[in-house]
Amino acid sequence: MDTVRFPAVLRSVRARILFSMLVVTALAMAIAGAASFLVQRERTLAQIDERLQHTVEDLQFVAAGDGTDESIPTSAVELMKTAMERVVPDHNASTVALLDGQPALVPAADVSFRLDDDPEFLARVAGEADDERVVIGTAAAAPGILRYVIVPVHAPGDPSTGQYVSAYNLSAELDELSDAFAAYAIVAAVSLVVIGGVGWAVAGRSLRPIRRLRETAARISASDLSERIPVQGNDDVSELARTVDGMLDRLEDSFSAQRRLLDDVSHELRTPLTIVRGHLELLDPDSPDDVREVRELALDELDRLGDLVAGIGTLVKSRRPDFVARADVDVAELTAQVAAKAAAFDSDRLWRIGGTAGLRARLDPARITQAWLQLAENAARYATPATEVVLGSRVVRTPTGEQLEFVVADEGPGIPTAHRERVFERFARVAPGRGDDGSGLGLSIVRAIAEAHGGTASLRDSAAGGSEFVVRVPLDRPEAGIGSAPTAPRSLPAAARPGAAEDADAEVGSSAASVHGLDADPAAEPGFDELIGASSRPAPRERPQRADRNPRPPGRPEGGTR
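^ histidine kinase, sequence as received from the core. Prediction below:
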């Protein structure tokens, strides 16, 4: 028996491409339509719950009157009648007022369905009604699936018990959504036909030779990803070439990102290693105090090295929320600690603390130390030799609130105004040869740290004629019991009292008419309440601090650039 062979057109690349394209497009349309339907359905249900909640609030307002005793309802029937007159049911909604379990009042306006015509629903309401709280539920009734709320109504001196019932027809609300989705399905089907015709025409062009594609791809190597495949025309082979070129673009970007990552690692490890080496070479082994202090500093720097190695990946993505781990920090102690570490960069200079903010603030001490030492290293490298470098912290008031500044000011040639913004860019050089021995990431990392704290990094002229670098962050003062506890569920409005609408928290039970028990059961009906939770980040462990010392390291630290 001969093997059954499909027509050549069905086995062609043209047909396979078109078939795959239509399948993917149809699947995407189906997923998008279904997702939109589900999202809109949930939104509709949530809006119905909000409307029911507003009904409860409207009933509160009616119970409160207009602030005079004459306007306060004196009986449950009067309160519900006033509510019927003032609260007009929405589209696909209806209301009924029950007195002692029997229908007493119905809306005068035309409604799409009537609750008093359904005895089974009324019997269910009578069984579920609670004199002390609002009841929310869903039930199948004659008009369709109903979402309803039962609000108990009492009045002092009136022995009767009233229930104000408001319900929405979920079936009618969702039918409108289903009609819209059916229209979407028709439009999607027509779109698939149009896409199929266009795709067939485009994919029907002859395939061009792929030799140029193979030859060009063979010349591309890991050391040189700059070459691209020449693209001519708009046929399927040309699209393949464009796709390969796009892949090469992504690969080149990936390799460049890896190189930048290595620069980040070398740049950030160089500064703490220089500090540790400088103090270790100046260590007096016969002095227990000196040994203890150097040991503490070395452990501190090793901890910071570990943090840098572990977090170097997130350093590139400094916009992520977990880039900064805030803790309660003594700014004065942090200033003294950074000044002691910075002195190891160049002992020929006078390192001075120009001012200290004597307060505590919530910030990331490791990141601020990293940025501050980077600025100090730049000052040691580029300022006039044997001149003074001033480090300090201060609080300034701005139109947006209090700001905490960390400052490094030097004496030297400074940076031209035209280059002051550019120096914070990645791999920026102010002039040829300046900073060539560094990775060019120092000030860009400083800016990233400042921005991660919600602040800025800037440069201006110092009082001594050099440069003054400022890391400014919003002042976040610590408070007792720092950390966010989970927020309790948000319940329905508190009970309303006639004549006391302005006192939402007042106690129910006065001599005026009231709507009782307006706190719905959140466990039974989660659609009415939302639980807002917050978590707090544990503060990092405090590192030992080191007393001021001004040793002379064996040589200036490498790395970094201004």
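Residues 435-439, 481-562 have pLDDT under 50 and may be disordered.
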